[in-house]
Amino acid sequence: MSHPPPSAEEIAVTLAELLPTFRHSLPRKLPDSIWPESAVALPSGDVTVGGVSLTELAERFGTPGYVLDVQAVRARCRAYRSMDAEIAFAGKAFLCRRMARLLAEEGMSLDVCSAGELATALAAGFPAERILLHGNAKTDRELRTAANAGVGRVVVDSPAEIDRIVGAQDVLVRVTPGIDGHTHRAVATGVEDQKFGLSLAGGQAAAAVAKVLQRPELRLVGLHCHLGSQISEVAGYEEAVRRLTAFLAEIAVRHGITLPQLNIGGGHAVAYRPGDAEFDLPGFAARIPRVLHYECRKHGLVVPRLTLEPGRAIVARAGITLYRVVTVKHGSSRTFVAVDGGFSDNPRPELYGSRYAARLIGRVGAARERAMSVVGRHCEAGDVLIPDAVLPVDIRAGDLLAVPCTGAYHHSMASTYNLVCRPPVVAVDDGAAEPWVRRETETDLLRRDVA
Ligand code: LLP
User: Fold this and answer.
1) Residue 250's Cα: distance from chain center in Å?
2) Which residue, 283, 315, 347, sits at the end of a domain?
3) Which of 119, 140, 186, 422 holds its CA 20 to 30 A away from the CA of 363?
4) Does 152 lie in the same domain as 287?
5) 312 belongs to an annotated ligand binding site
6) What confidence score (pLDDT) does residue 22 get?
7) What positions does the entry give for substrate binding (predicted)?
């Protein structure tokens, strides 16, 4: 039997196994649970993402800066869209006009929860009929703007809101199914006694359904629930499908209507550090439609169209934050690596105790590594980005650090605390870089400040 000759890549891999020194001189893929698939570590210590060098990006666009791998976002949209479901991206994770246009191109729907997110989507020409308006405290102005724009669906979150919805409108009722997604309490929304939704067990959801049906201009098209965020287990979603299908059956009996849509929200977890639990999307895609079909058959219901609302799972891993080390301070028991960003570009460590990894970019550091604290520039002792980053012991001022998995809830949660300007979002795609959001300047800050 004859074998084909080995490829150049196979020869390189074999050589790398035989000669450790050769291994270090090869470009390497980075752990793709936390880096975008396109990330490659070069022998020089630089890393390319989307074919663009991070060192060059830092020089060209400054630091701190968010980098977004466009193909990584598209790949996640497509992974979700391969399911037989409507996929509505949760705009709160990251939204700008270019992002909205990408989402439209990928056939996604969009969940917005404020006038700002709605205005951004509309300014990008995102189809209004594919927009869902969320919020536990929608203002009259937001409801009016949504009606004028022809927003597809409003997700009802309180009984009083039902009277305030303007014009003929498709609505969903947001149900609190009483399911614990086992996540941080700040982002757990499926459980009873928090501010979102209408309780299934307490009868508030049934009352809201009856109330919507009393307003002839409103068309009740389905139910919604959102269990919370950064959920790694599929089981909670199965239970949500069971409980909501039973409720659909109850509505069919009581009101003689079949609702065509079932939206089970987002919340799918990503890994922030190697080894973190990740949401099992293939498992979810295999399991959930089956559970839905089974439950509908059991209740004699026509199977509703499933909607999912992932935010984090679409953009988190596509994003990287670049920081410049400003100073390194050796305390009595630990080393503080202070960078030019911090709490204002990433409040997540302080808000949720989120943990990240960091990597030295642009040079090969000392072989010996140690855990040290990467801290921000803000005037608070709690402004610690990573309390236990493992970095080369010779880390020094001027070094460039990359923190992966920062594409979701980073730019969108950035503030101007200490009047620090917000970083740009630079999109990389096929070897080219272009800002999607430019860096904020002091002039921007002063423009809002009425002298
Ligand atoms: N649908 C609704 C109604 C939501 O409220 C949310 C998120 C999502 C979908 C999307 O969830 P995702 O798939 O992105 O987990 N700032 C926090 C996350 C807050 C999420 C709020 N709602 C964080 O940085 O972890």
Assistant:
1) 34
2) 315
3) 422
4) yes
5) yes
6) 53
7) 312, 348, 352, 380, 409
